[in-house]
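haha ok so turns out i had the wrong file open the whole time. this is the CORRECT one, sorry everyone. sequence first:
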Amino acid sequence: MSAEEALARAEKLLVQVEEARKRLEQTDDQAQSIEILSELAELAKGVEAELGRARREAETEADADA
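then structure:
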């Protein structure tokens, strides 16, 4: 996977984060709020993983070009 592909995946996850955040703002149900917060935590982990993958790939690509 290239750095660009990893960044594209991170961007898709960020769209999901924004959608979940909007749902969280619209709910008054505590149980649903907790469920959405858990979803946000998982999405954040996914974004972090994709950004790390993109960083590693970019470094690998830079080393290959050097």
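Residues 3-65 form one domain.
again sry for the mixup
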